[in-house]
Amino acid sequence: MAKGRKNGLYSGISEELSALMRTGWADTERHDLRLAEQAPYAARRRAALSARFPGERLVVPSGSLKVRSNDSSYPFRPYTGYVHMTGDQARDGALVLEPRADGGHDAYCYQLPRDGRDDDEFWTGPTAELWMGRRRSLAESELVLGLPCRDVRTAADDLAAASGAPTRIVRGIAPSLEAAVTTEEERDDELEEALSDLRLVKDDWEIGELRKAVDSTVRGFTDVIGELSGAIASSERWIEGTFFRRARLEGNSVGYGSICAAGEHATIMHWEDNDGPVRPGELLLLDAGVETHTLYTADVTRTLPISGTFTPLQRKVYDAVYEAQEAGMAAVKPGAAYRDFHEASQRSLAARLVEWGFIEGPADRAYELGLQRRFTMAGTGHMLGLDVHDCAQARNEEYVDGVLEPGMVLTVEPGLYFQPDDLTVPEEWRGIGVRIEDDLVVTEDGHQNLSAGLPRSSDEVEAWMARFAG
């Protein structure tokens, strides 16, 4: 029986109550389920992973609930590599690739089965079905995932007893499974690298999901424009809540903590407190993305004049960032080095900063020394997919030192940030932060801007706000 609360109201369960609870339940097994749309793509991804590790057992866990406070848990988010290889989002699962003699693998998925009705587990604990909601049965999961499924409660013993092949496991996800196998950290790290490598080029289904994420994000930004008066009357939290509503209505949630940064908060790269005032005459930097039901996320940023029009100085900074983004986007094409778009944007910003007298030139020297980074802070983009910073464990030679290929999806997001306490710039510049970010897919002949539905140039932004701002 699940452990009860220390201060629970009931001291126990009578035999009569237990008997009552175990009877009178309908058979709810679903026989109408079909193979998930993503399943054939996930099968091809597993085949690619298999080819990298012939003769080795691979274990990719999904993860488990994490306590937020007492008996309250954080919303569950499965390990990205597990989702990519299975299409599944269940907690307490694990994908196992068992090696065959021919060098390939047999894949199966451990799952937490449904609670039976022959004991009290299904209703006596906060993770039981009557508390958390119905799970799929193993048979149902097999229909949806196209994978043989096993009871995860035997997984640790099964793995401990397995022999005949070396094992790799993704570490830090499922301690009980880690404890059951003997592995080497360096070899396990190579498995995690491979899972990231294999997400660098998206398949057609994934690109379709990212389009959905971006389209919902465009609508979320328009929602925010329409409710700016509510934000002015309250705080940045109105903006956060407005975008979150769209994310929950059309997707799973937001793909990351929304950055709703007004005024000098726009100079803070990852401002997520979102509790400051929204004042006319200042700028609002909104960095947000909807995550689809399949967990693919958009990542878009626009910097907006709260009053509807830029001041001359705000426009000057904004146009410099726009110019840098244009240079960066022009460099996104197949065969180009991944670093090219970053270099193009950063060189453009370095030239402007030299022109304005904020760093010492010439511009090429300033760029080579990285002097512009005082005001640009970060790189100019990253891969995008199931994670907002996707493929984070991929090998450098495949990612930052690699070459762009059709199917890669990335952000281009230059910015300029003049800190409110920066005495190296004139006072009127201090507290201005501008970032413009779009999501691009590399195509056979260049790129497509998935977020082109949102205005980018200063004139377009002002016209957009004049149309929708409330």
UniProtKB/TrEMBL annotation:
Residue stretches making up the Aminopeptidase P N-terminal domain: 36-178
Cofactor(s) in the UniProt record: Mn(2+)
Entry's Gene Ontology BP terms: proteolysis
Molecular function via GO: manganese ion binding; metalloaminopeptidase activity
Database matches in SUPFAM superfamilies: Creatinase/aminopeptidase, Creatinase/prolidase N-terminal domain
UniProt-listed Pfam families: AMP_N (PF05195), Peptidase_M24 (PF00557)
Substrates-to-products reaction catalysed: Release of any N-terminal amino acid, including proline, that is linked to proline, even from a dipeptide or tripeptide
Annotated EC: 3.4.11.9
EC class: hydrolase
PROSITE patterns: PROLINE_PEPTIDASE
InterPro entries per UniProt: Aminopep_P_N, Creatin/AminoP/Spt16_N, Creatinase/aminopeptidase-like, Pept_M24, Peptidase_M24B_aminopep-P_CS, X-Pro_dipept-like
Keyword vocabulary terms for this entry: Aminopeptidase, Hydrolase, Manganese, Metal-binding, Protease
GO cellular component terms listed in the entry, alphabetical order: cytosol
Family: Belongs to the peptidase M24B family.
Protein name per its UniProtKB record: Xaa-Pro aminopeptidase
Source organism per UniProt: Streptomyces jumonjinensis
